[in-house]
Amino acid sequence: MVAAPSPMGAPDASGRFGSFGGRFVPESLVPACMELETAFSEAWADAAFRARLASLLASYAGRPTPITECPRLSAELGVEVVLKREDLTHTGSHKINNVLGQALLAERMGKRRLIAETGAGQHGVATATAAAYFGMECAVFMGEVDVERQALNVFRMELLGATVYPVRSGSRTLKDAVNEALRDWVASVETTHYCIGSVMGPHPYPYLVRQLQRVVGDEAREQYRERSGGRDPDVIVACVGGGSNAAGTFAGFADTAARLVGVEAAGGSAVGHGVPGIVHGMRSLFLQDEEGQVLEAESISAGLDYPGIGPEHAHLAELGRATYEAVGDDEVLAAFQVLARTEGILPALEPAHALAWVIRAARDGTLAPGTKVLLTMSGRGDKDVAQVKEMLA
Amino acid sequence: MVAAPSPMGAPDASGRFGSFGGRFVPESLVPACMELETAFSEAWADAAFRARLASLLASYAGRPTPITECPRLSAELGVEVVLKREDLTHTGSHKINNVLGQALLAERMGKRRLIAETGAGQHGVATATAAAYFGMECAVFMGEVDVERQALNVFRMELLGATVYPVRSGSRTLKDAVNEALRDWVASVETTHYCIGSVMGPHPYPYLVRQLQRVVGDEAREQYRERSGGRDPDVIVACVGGGSNAAGTFAGFADTAARLVGVEAAGGSAVGHGVPGIVHGMRSLFLQDEEGQVLEAESISAGLDYPGIGPEHAHLAELGRATYEAVGDDEVLAAFQVLARTEGILPALEPAHALAWVIRAARDGTLAPGTKVLLTMSGRGDKDVAQVKEMLA
Amino acid sequence: MSVQAPHDDARTRATGRLESALRERRAAGRKLLVPYVTGGLGADWVDIVRALAAAGADGIEVGIPFSDPVMDGPVIQEASQRALAQGATPRSVLAGIASAEVDTPIAVMTYYNLIARAGDKRMAAELARAGVAAAILPDLPLEEARPWCAEADAAGVETVMLAAPTTPDERLARLAQRGRGFLYAVGLLGVTGERSQLAESALAIARRCKQVTDLPVLVGVGVSNASQARAICEVADGVVVGSALVRRILEGAGPDGAGEFIGELRQALDS
Amino acid sequence: MSVQAPHDDARTRATGRLESALRERRAAGRKLLVPYVTGGLGADWVDIVRALAAAGADGIEVGIPFSDPVMDGPVIQEASQRALAQGATPRSVLAGIASAEVDTPIAVMTYYNLIARAGDKRMAAELARAGVAAAILPDLPLEEARPWCAEADAAGVETVMLAAPTTPDERLARLAQRGRGFLYAVGLLGVTGERSQLAESALAIARRCKQVTDLPVLVGVGVSNASQARAICEVADGVVVGSALVRRILEGAGPDGAGEFIGELRQALDS
Ligand SMILES: Cc1ncc(COP(=O)(O)O)c(C=O)c1O
Ligand SMILES: Cc1ncc(COP(=O)(O)O)c(C=O)c1O
User: Fold this and answer.
1) Which residue among B86, B208, B239 is best mutated to probe the pocket of ligand 2, counting the most ligand atoms within 8 A of its Cβ?
2) Around Cβ C143, how many Cβ atoms within 10 Å?
3) Which pLDDT score is estimated for C59?
4) Is A238 a pocket residue for ligand 1 (Cβ < 6 Å)?
5) What is the pLDDT of residue B6?
6) Is-contact D166 B28, C-beta < 8 A?
7) In percent, how much of chain C has pLDDT > 70?
8) ipTM of this predicted structure
9) Which of A59, A72, A345 sits opposite B66 (nearest CB)?
10) How many contacts does A have with B, using Cβ atoms within 8 A?
């Protein structure tokens, strides 16, 4: 496998990474997407914007997050694991990096209302948080099933001043929440910014969100080099729902020799079991039936419960620059417990997927002894403790 | 009020801050306390120890934590509030600063078992976390009433490998958990380090814990000066349970002109309603009856539900160098909601006490318009969301 | 910038069956009425299509239900879900259309994934084979439409383009240029569904569309009753009526009720 | 270092009532037996004190119940809680002691807060007035004891010091020097409570205490039955028996049962 030069550059003019991406949205939204594309590229080139974002990330969200060595876990596995600690950010996951950037962008575009989809509630809470900080209106769409399962996160969003709309259509989960957010946006596009939660949706979102998340990878690379006398890790591992933490992490290492591994939930493995399709504004890989009806993903981790994957990942998979693995719920539960016991860190169930793969790969020899692994700890497990308790009972 | 020179120095040889402190423990524990005193003063003077602790705090716990401006809250109150963000540390409160230091000290003393008391579970989780990280055995004592109220934190500690012992004596809450931890320690002192969770207990704990927590104040002072062209805040505010986050914060500013304000729960106001007594190894202020029987504290915030206060606070109160205020549950709930809505930050109920006082003082003119307030956000509110939801229902 | 140059021009256009029918009727001074019905919804949906034709529809829009219909409001979402639950597939809907044997030109309305999954070429051929005149694909905007349009053009399937209130003038012209059958003017910012009040934007977009094109301009989305339809037809060439009809069908109107409702609208437009 | 110089020396010592009684009996070859009972526990606790005296106790330890008894295990915790719930206060317990009118010297055992709250001087006077010979304060170690000891000495109340298995030799000597009444050798690392096995540490600490002092050395904590008491008395001058007795009282033994149990121990030690 030879890495193409700069495999994680900007998408082409049509918003495509290879054959994936694009902008498949109702005509009503096309101008807004174009406006966003322009606004983002101007803002991204504007030192003042970048400085304001950096300052917000530092003073509000708690960046830089450290990298943490895992001596006891590493000893147990025989491979050297270092974590990038997105779990230490404000609101407890990498999602905050994205929402602060998008809220700042919305402000710049004169939009004072944010909408977002959410599954378990992480991205919803993050968006509501940014909206509170900026004094913006906020509406969060959440499948009715998830509203019931995640009553506390609903309350959290309400405390933050957001209105949570239970979505009663379709499977009443994340996929339908995205649909509903798009429907709201179709109606509100003139005043509203749709704050998409991952590297998905119509162009420029997959690129925009990846750029906002690349702070994870860029920081990690610098920190890792500083710690290791200039060396890069051998393997970079991150979980993949839509793929934003993985994309942000990979972006920092795409031009190194490091192997990039995205880990999906076995029940939501868009790379493993998906086929190309056009859903939620993008051409990418989706779980779907023979006719093209989208299937529901199934995972213990609400954040990975998405039947698609960001288009850039589909592209990286096609290129072979990144590989995508799938792990099952049992392995994930075991990984969750191992990290708690050995390092005193309760991972979110999503990054516990990444760890589950590392554990499996270390045991079956896929990762040679001594391999240097950097794993993005995309969020903290506090949100999942009640669920894990029930599952282990 | 003229600040005495260095009002927050070391205690005297008997472990006293003024007339408070000391070491009132069973004879079995006296040698262990002396050993700890010596070990700590050696370790604290040892650059290698300090460096190892600093590195652990940075790479594992996420220090330095930022200070965060609160533009919308400040506009609403008319005073300028800046938060010191201990809520962004690993495990979500300042407690981690203390436990990592003590665990490192325990390791240095050759002790491979940690015990701790806990109320709601914050310190218990923090201790279990440190024990997991260091591969130590861990036992946490928790009142039976709290075990029932905080089942998720019990599970968290168990995930981290700790054994949680429900305490069935007395009021079956925090105070009794301390008793039980002391009883365990009496029996296990040769192999066990008692990791006390606040600036309380027999000498050297109040001093030791304050020194471990002063990183909060020292960082905040430097950060605040950097942000404000060398100026210090006018007022430093922190909540007070045992008083560790307040002591750590105050220590950074004791030699400035800043006014120091500790905020207690009205139902646990040891300075407001306590009298001198000797409990849990120290002479300090305690809620007690005419005979000297210790009373239970009552607060919505489990972390402030302690009938005493650290001896150094009793001393600072006596000196007048710090003042102690009390706020009621309703003000606290309101403050919790205000911060969520204006700044997108869910505070733990404990620091919501500090904020409640700031709100009251800004409204009644105790704090003049434009006063510069630094408030220690000692922990995040996620642990309290379910409780707040119930209370607001 | 991802805006592409218009990839079509008037010289290569062949006027299709739907467009011819609509132009002809418009030329005769008639206001155009295109009802929408969800394919596969109920055992009698093909009879409903026939009833709509009989009631004076100038064209019929048949939805091929999709799992994730982002341009649709609650009524059509519900209809799609029910149809899917009853086993509707693109193939079964096309078979139904073929079996309807109505003269009124039929346009399918669906989402692009159902086409992409089958393949542009194959689906274009299947549509043609089923006798479908046109396709309306609300999530396939101009910039993404080229591959599909090439196959559709080749197969003789007219691709209806949608214009929205947010579409700038310059773009409107390009949409009209690429559009076949008619220009679908989305009457408001929002998804399909009935509205008690006619949106001002409906008249505005109709006016703007009329200024840039000679194609029949039909306003859809939010056209809920006869008076709204008449008001729009002061400006536009006609209307698409979806949710108001589908709601009645969901409520059990059946072919008779559906025909009756469309008959009323027909009458209102003709009078 | 917070270790203070010993603040007392042998020259100023006045031998108190408890110490005299114990020394005298030891000199007579008798092994010393000091039972512990929680003051205020049950309506008949004063009768129990009398029964213990009658059963041959050489001294009696009466606990003044405290809300937070950190040196006590479950049995004495339970007894303290019950006594407090029944309204026991330092004053009521002292009144009970005064009313008992036993010749056997009585030592109160309590926690220092109850003394500090009243004031050292006042509480010393109250103890003396109630006829209490001595005080045992397990949370008042040598370094903190000076103010209390000064008042207690002045009031003629003997302050019993405790020695633990972890106490280093040098410190043991200072404890013994400051101790009055007897030297309380804590038999194990742990809180009060019965143990099925005699701890090795009990003999070790007894031996170490005997090496540094001429004071009567009694081992307490974990002495649960006659055979343990006898084994200890091979080395020590006597034993303090607490939880084993208090458990029986909690179980309803009453004055008779309490007296019977102590009588058995007495016999075992005397035989
Ligand atoms: C902690 C955490 N990690 C990962 C994810 C998955 O999202 P993504 O793949 O976009 O990083 C989520 C989504 O909610 C999350 O909460
Ligand atoms: C977040 C938080 N703040 C404050 C406290 C009170 O402790 P202290 O007064 O020692 O800072 C606690 C105790 O659990 C806590 O969890």
Assistant:
1) B239
2) 21
3) 98
4) no
5) 60
6) yes
7) 96
8) 0.94
9) A59
10) 114
Q: How far is the CA of B233 from the centre of ligand 2 (A)?
A: 22
Mean pLDDT over the full length of chain D: 94
Could you read off the pLDDT of B121-131 as tens digits, one per residue?
999 999 999 99
Q: Which residues, including other chains, have CB under 8 Å from residue D171's CB and lie 6 or more apart?
A: B30, B31, D3, D142
Residue C2 pLDDT greater than 50, yes or no: no
Residues 6+ apart with CB under 8 A from D78: B169, D250
Least CA distance to B344: which residue of chain A?
A: A129
Within a 13 Å sphere around the CA of A170, how many CA atoms are in the beta-carbon half? 27
Q: Which residues of B69-94 are buried (b: 16+ CB within 10 A; e: fewer)?
A: bbebbbeebebbbbbbbbbbbbbbbb
How many Å apart are CA A225 and CA B230, to the nearest integer? 34
* pLDDT value at residue B191: 96
At A164 the pLDDT is 98
Look up C139 and say whether it is catalytic: no
The pLDDT-based confidence of B299 (bands split at 50, 70, 90) is confident
Q: Pick from B382, B384, B388, B392 the residue to mutate for testing the A interface (most A CBs within 10 Å).
A: B382
Which residue's CA is the nearest one to ligand 1's atom 14? A303
- What is the token pair recorded at A382? 């506090």
What are residue B21's phi and psi, to 5 degrees? Answer: 115, -135
Domain architecture of chain B: domains with CATH: 16-57+94-194 (3.40.50.1100), 62-93+214-392 (3.40.50.1100)
Do the bridges between strand B235-239 and strand B20-21 make them parallel or antiparallel, or are there none, so unpaired?
unpaired
pLDDT (average), residues B193-207? 98
Residue D8: pLDDT over 70: no
Predicted pLDDT at B290: 96
If you search the block for the tokens 């733990």, which residue do you land on?
B348
Residue B2 reports pLDDT greater than 80: no
Residues 6+ apart with CB under 8 A from A63: A54, A57, A89, A97, A215, A219
- Residue C20 in 3-state DSSP? helix
Residue-range domain boundaries for chain D? 30-270
Ranges of residues in chain A whose predicted pLDDT is under 50: 1-5
Report the pLDDT averaged over residues D173-192.
Answer: 96
Q: Which of residues 101-130 of B touch A (CB under 8 A)?
A: 128-130
Cβ contact, residue pair D164, B34, below 8 Å: no
Task: Name which of C10, C12, C2, C18 is nearest C218 in CA terms.
Answer: C18
A340 and chain B: CB distance < 8 Å anywhere?
yes
Question: Comparing C-alpha atoms, which of A314, A109, A120, A287 is closest to residue A206?
Answer: A314
Q: What is the per-residue pLDDT for C12?
A: 58
* Ligand 1 centroid – CA A245 distance (Å): 7
D24 alpha carbon – ligand 1 mean position (Å): 80
Return the sign of the alpha-carbon dihedral for residues C223, C228, C230, C233.
negative
pLDDT band at C10 (very low <50, low <70, confident <90, very high): very low
CATH number given to D30-270: 3.20.20.70
**CA-to-CA distance for D151 and D144, rounded, in angstroms?**
13
Question: Using H for helix, E for strand and C for coil, what is the string for A127-193?
Answer: HHHHHHHHCCEEEEEEEHHHHHHCHHHHHHHHHCCCEEEEECCCCCCHHHHHHHHHHHHHHHCCCEE
Q: Is the CB of A203 under 6 A from ligand 1?
A: no
Known catalytic residue: A94?
yes
pLDDT at A6: 60
- Per residue in C13-43, pLDDT (tens digit) is 778 999 999 999 999 999 999 999 999 999 9
User: Which pLDDT score is estimated for C4?
Assistant: 42
How far apart are the C-alpha atoms of B152 and B130, rounded to whole Å? 18
Per residue, the 3-state secondary structure of B315-362, as one string, reads HHHHHCCEEEEEECHHHHHHHHHHHHHHHCCCECHHHHHHHHHHHHHH
